[in-house]
Design brief:
The complex is a heterodimer of chains A (about 180) and B (about 280). Chain A has seven helices and two strands, in the order αββαααααα. With about 180 residues, chain A is mainly alpha-helical. Chain A has a single domain, classed as Orthogonal Bundle (Arp2/3 complex 21 kDa subunit ARPC3). In chain A, a hairpin with a 6-residue loop joins strand 1 and strand 2. In chain A, helix 1 packs antiparallel against helix 2. With about 280 residues, chain B is mainly alpha-helical. Chain B has a two-stranded antiparallel ribbon with strand order 1-2. In chain B, strand 1 and strand 2 form a beta hairpin. In chain B, helix 4 runs parallel beside helix 7 and helix 8 packs antiparallel against helix 9. The longest helix of chain B is centred in the last third of the chain and has 32 residues. The termini of chain B are far apart. The interface between A and B is large, with 56 and 70 residues.
Chain lengths: ~180, ~280
């Protein structure tokens, strides 16, 4: 299915708005005090898987920057950039997933999750701590532990919410090649 | 709800600056604060920010909530840094002046305190500027200002779409939430297990996201019918031409960034080190 560039632009806008609303208002308190389960990364993986790497990158960048703006703590650049990178890597799965085609079975579930796990690891255990050290010179133990915890939590929520979203969405789409010409 | 980003309408010199100039200044200013660890540069920045705040005629109590959010965040982050590396400053500055030998590994050194001072100054330099930016810039002008500073208009339009649809999506989320509660979804119980909470969230998120997919198609069709994306440029209703004051502000902030980077390059280090 070929998508017009306008669809991608709108998807970025609506995706960023959803990312913002989920991140800002749909925080589920986790058992660890002062931390929330970020449902928005499940959405990000799904949207990136549907609309591709550029959309994934920009949804995460815009959505995350808007969340930071609305809290007023400035843009925490290191984590915003890490979010963007996660969205980009998740989007690389898009071409092979073909979510719009209506098929999402065992093989696609594995592929989707491999991409999202790699994306989260690169973002939260790679990019975010390294940038935190570069910008704020924070102690490396602290940033890597923080990154590891955020990464693990995000991988689990993305695996649950993202996969279920893909399943639900693919059911609403007609399967490609489901129409046959009558003899 | 309409005022998600805390925009406050006033008449002040800061409000009169164009959104593009303010956004460029914010970027340059925060980059300057991020790159340096020179206390002599970091110390005047919060003071200048406070003066600008005063000029903007925004009162402190109007942005109190935003300020406290960040303040708590800053305190927590500093506490975490200390717990993980009580002698991080000693490593960075290469000297050790003990004030109090402390308990176990938790010592108190001048270098550590100086490092924390710099981290706090970095926060204090950027926080007021961000709050100033969001409370003096109209969100719709923000999108057009992105285009102004060189971002492709298609991406700027995505940002403007996001800002436009955040209230709609919030409203739809609330509708879905009430509808699900009317059908018996238990939300009020504070002692629910985590799995139950996740299930509840899913029951609201899925309808919201799937219906948003339809919305994307609808908006994209409407935009395509009106020929969006055909031209190389587009104009913005909320864009204003640059005035002298805008040029001056951007030039000053660019100068600050140059100074911050220049000092680091000349000294071959980002630190101002009073201990060596």
């Amino acid at each position: 299915m070929k998508k017009s560039p306008v669809v991608t632009i709108v998807a970025i806008g609506i995706g960023a708005a959803l990312f913002f609303v989920l991140g800002r208002f749909v925080a589920i308190p986790s058992p660890v005090p002062n931390t929330n389960i970020s449902t928005q990364y499940g959405l990000l993986a799904f949207m990136a898987g549907l609309f591709g790497p550029v959309a994934g990158l920009l949804i995460a960048l815009i959505g995350h920057a808007l969340i930071d703006f609305s809290y007023g703590w400035g843009i925490w650049w290191s984590w915003v950039i890490a979010s963007g990178a996660a969205g980009f890597i998740m989007g690389l799965a898009a071409r092979k997933l073909a979510l719009g085609g209506g098929e999402f079975g065992g093989k696609q579930i594995v592929r989707f999750n491999v991409y999202q796990i790699v994306a989260h690891l690169v973002a939260w255990v790679g990019i975010a701590p390294v940038l935190d050290i570069l910008i704020y010179q924070e102690p490396s133990d602290k940033v890597f532990l923080q990154g590891l915890m955020a990464g693990a939590a995000n991988i689990v929520t993305t695996a649950v919410i993202g996969t279920l979203l893909c399943l639900a969405y693919s059911k609403t789409r007609p399967k490609s090649g489901s129409l046959k010409k009558e003899d | 709800m309409t005022n998600l980003f805390n925009y406050i309408q006033r008449s002040s010199p800061i409000h009169r600056l164009t959104g593009a100039a303010k956004f460029a200044c914010l970027l340059l200013w925060s980059l300057a604060a991020m790159t340096t660890f020179d206390t002599r540069i970091l110390l005047p920045m919060p003071i200048v920010a406070c003066i600008l705040f005063f000029l903007s005629r925004i009162r402190f109590r109007e942005v109190k909530v935003l300020f406290w959010f960040t303040f708590v965040f800053m305190v927590l982050n500093n506490a975490l840094i200390y717990v993980f590396a009580p002698e991080h400053g000693v490593e960075l500055y290469g000297a050790r002046h003990v004030i109090w030998s402390g308990i176990g590994r938790f010592t108190l050194t001048q270098e550590q305190l100086f490092y924390h001072l710099n981290v706090i100054l970095k926060y204090l330099a950027t926080i007021p500027m961000v709050i100033l930016f969001i409370s003096t810039t109209q969100p719709s002008e923000f999108a057009s200002s992105l285009n102004r500073i060189g971002v492709s208009y298609k991406i700027a339009y995505s940002v403007s779409l996001a800002l436009r649809y955040i209230p709609d999506i919030q409203r739809e989320y609330r509708d879905i939430s009430t509808a699900q509660q009317a059908r018996g979804l238990e939300m009020a119980d504070k002692k629910q297990s985590l799995v139950k909470r996740l299930k509840n969230a899913a029951a609201m998120l899925f309808p919201l996201i799937i219906s948003s997919m339809d919305r994307i198609e609808l908006i994209a069709n409407a935009m395509e019918l009106r020929g969006f994306g055909k031209g190389k440029k587009r104009t913005w209703y909320s864009a204003r031409p640059f005035q002298t004051a805008d040029y001056v502000c951007v030039a000053l902030c660019a100068g600050l960034l140059l100074l911050s980077v220049g000092m680091s390059v000349l000294r071959h280090s980002r630190y101002f080190n009073p201990f060596s």
